[in-house]
Amino acid sequence: MTDPFTLERRRRAIHGWLLLSPALVMLTVFAFYPSLATFVTSLWSRGTRRRPSEFVGFENYQYLFEDPTFWLVAWNNLLYAAITIPISIALALAMALWANSKIPARSFVRTAYFTPTVLPMIAAANLWLFFYTPSFGILNQIGGLFGAEPVNWLGQPSTALWAVCAVTIWKEAGFFMIFYLAALQTIPPDLKEAAEIEGASRWTYLRRVVLPLLMPTTLFILVNAMINSVKLIDHLFILTKGGPSDSSKLILYYIWENAFAYFDRPTAAAMTALVLTLLGALAAFQFLMLDKRTHYR
Fold this sequence. Notes:
This protein is mostly helical. Helix content is 74%, strand content 0%. It has helices at residues 4-41, 59-65, 68-100, 106-118, 121-132, 138-145, 157-184, 189-197, 202-213, 215-231, 234-239, 251-261, 265-290. Helix 1 packs across helix 13 (265-290) and helix 3 (68-100) packs antiparallel against helix 10.
């Protein structure tokens, strides 16, 4: 006869697995299985009707590491992330601090900051495409008032990637601002009153009190910004299509191009596996290093 303690422990275990089962099913169907299938696909060659695919091991990865276009795209994505992530976060924090202060028309300011987030990326890209147009775009019209020569922002390698980064920053800063604004409203006002009594300046209060309390929100925003720097490609289809000369091509666009334009699924799968590995390493770094330095209380 089983003792009551063992029965209770089994009942709790079954209850726990039943609670976890919906999430496990969703993760298995939409995350674990696709990731495993992608890795398996990356180990096979590109098949045709006359020549079926064969197991080639890590030859697709070797091909990628020897492909100069892949390294150019990887560098573009690294530069894209290095530009958009810190500027978007800093701009979002500045906008949240201003929108949270006692200013006239505060609701209007918050709405104006958040409006770009509501727009779909395709609509935002079309809007900025009008700004960047060489002949009658708004940016060149403004520059012409000061005697500046027209610039083909999207048609030359030196400015194309920067133009794409500007669209991303404009689109994401307002979204990140909402999280900072919500976090700022949870900070007790007693802390500011105590800092004023102690004679602390606004900068000291911001650096010693506000920023440490915002670290959990900053960490959350940082993770989302890193993911977005890899997955955002909508605006590339409208603005540059990765050109000119692959100067604005990002890794996810390159994956789509190989999979659906060149029908080279194994190479696209190999790149996807590398991206997943990199994101996993960044997640591990977050939990092992950054999370320990974050103050949740």
